[in-house]
């Protein structure tokens, strides 16, 4: 019976009966096997990706700023801000073709190859002597990392039903948050290698983390899995009957388990005319503006509060630990109660409480408490935003386009996050704080508009006036937007 299929509910009004050859216990075991192989592997790789992308802040306070003269202004922008934002120019541009390549080449080969390549680039950063060389390597890093995150978001969405994917996105991003939590402590430890092989401490941050990335890239080649329709290429960790169960399960949930043949025109046409895709992208832009601003400048902000360099590196960890708890809790609640918009609003309210405390309270201890709330809300909203779009999109190529667009706007948010806390605003960064507040308010407005539009569309579909999310792959009846 359909009720036995974990995470699946028949379309409203449907009288069709679904049967499954596996018992509920066997179904759970299959899903958990996929979790261990897929979610954990890409989560660990994302962990090192986020660490490599954001370790500039740790290296900056560890001596890189002085050695490469990154505090010097170029026009009205510091060299450090330029180095942070050039990464996103290529990161944004190369994301749409990357989601096509991952579908064509397969995640196991594609993802492991780019991880190894960007690890080599990270090692190279440890040997630069000019800030322009560092900026050039960041451009190359953007090209390589462009394919990773959208491909992972897309890959996860193909394996799970809509009301299973929220927890998986949360765990995936949670592992990345652990990187943010531990990166400062790791960087502080690597700083102690200062003078070894006549290299300063900040260089060892890049070299050691780059070596770790290369090693994990080779491990990823063995551990990663392909898309469900090509699972036979992944060392047969599922047998044909189990693969069929997964494909049928996704088809019954949203009817798009197997993709159509690729067409460039179809790839872009499937998404760019759909207004809600740009709504999801704006939500992600606003979210990442805040989260990247914290990732790049939190150690600097803590130093401005009066903490030492070592204390600032270590004090980054506890707020990200709280973010992990909130992230998983909201993901679990969203899946259980099949709601998405209110989760995003809740996270933004946390930020709206935390940012003013962090910026304007007279006590440093209380301001640090504000850092906890802001970090938890901003980072928890990343998987919440991914899940919101994944639940309300049908069609493989539309899903691929949406993943690329979503993460592309996240890259634009990275540029904004690298610019909102300006050198000339030290030590209070009031302009940056106001920008983050505006992003949070904007997200609440967008979710409100989409929620009303989804509610009205669902009502019309219930009355038989329209059919939602039709695509040429399938015309599944009964699809409803998740509010």
Automatic annotation (TrEMBL):
This is MFS general substrate transporter. Its main location: membrane. It is a multi-pass membrane protein. Residues 38-460 form the Major facilitator superfamily (MFS) profile domain. It is found in: Membrane. The chain crosses the membrane at residues 71-94, 106-128, 134-157, 169-190, 202-224, 277-298, 310-331, 343-362, 368-388, 400-420, 432-455. The keyword NAD does not apply. Keywords: Membrane, Transmembrane, Transmembrane helix, Transport. One of its GO terms (cellular component) is membrane. It comes from Massarina eburnea CBS 473.64. Pfam families: MFS_1 (PF07690). SUPFAM superfamilies: MFS general substrate transporter. One of its GO terms (molecular function) is transmembrane transporter activity.
